[in-house]
Amino acid sequence: MFSINIYSQTSSNPSGAGTTLLPYLISNINELYWIQENTTRWDKVYQQTADIDASSTSTWFSNAGWPMIGSNANPFIGSYDGQGYTISGLTINRGSSSDIGLFGKIQNAVLHNIKLTSINIVGYGSVWSFSLVIVIIQPFQIVLQVEM
């Protein structure tokens, strides 16, 4: 007899409209993943409304972890305000990859008040311990707090 463990990533549509007046409200890891899973969402406005437990990312994608928001082809160009809430337990395990983090590539983005704690990142080359932004293509504004 053998057993199979199946782990899946589940996204949830957050409330809001993704605009300055009605930002998408992010309160959990499923809503955060909702941003990541579709590049057409990478130009919207987001506001974090609660602490987020991201520890489940350790089993995502065959234990590779968080897949990042923003890529070379489609950088994140939106706005994310963490409002000082915490994202904890984020895992990225991509030993042969570089340029990895919560956000991969950004361009003219606004990242504000993002607080990351208890993170685990394994990569090659450009891996920043705070797992936020690796490669910056254009000018941007960023305010963050990192606790290890």
Task: Supply the key terms.
mainly beta; 148 residues; two-stranded parallel ribbon
Share of β-strand residues: 25-35%
Regions with little confidence, pLDDT below 50 for 5+ residues = 127-148
Put simply, the count of helices is 2
Q: Any idea how many domains? A: 1
Oligomerization status of the protein chains: single chain
Distance between the termini: 42 Å
Query: Roughly how much helix do the residues carry, as a percent range?
Result: under 10%
Largest sheet: 7 strands, parallel
What is the molecular shape? Answer: globular
The chain-level structural class is mainly beta
Q: How many E strands?
A: 11
Mean pLDDT: 80
Radius of gyration: 15 Å
Order of helices and strands: EHEEHEEEEEEEE
Task: Provide the fold topology.
Blueprint: E1 24-26, H1 29-36, E2 45-48, E3 52-53, H2 60-63, E4 79-81, E5 86-88, E6 91-93, E7 103-106, E8 110-117, E9 120-122, E10 133-136, E11 141-146
Parallel strand pairs: 1-2, 2-4, 3-5, 4-8, 5-8, 6-9, 7-10, 8-11
Describe this structure in words.
- This protein has 148 residues and is mainly β.
- It has one domain.
- Helix content is 8%, strand content 29%.
- The strands form three sheets. Strands 1, 2, 3, 4, 5, 8 and 11 form a seven-stranded parallel beta sheet that branches. Strands 6-9 form a two-stranded parallel ribbon.
- α1 (29-36) links the parallel β1 and β2.
- The longest helix has 8 residues, at 29-36.
- The radius of gyration is 15 Å and the shape is globular.
- The model is unreliable at 127-148 (pLDDT under 50).
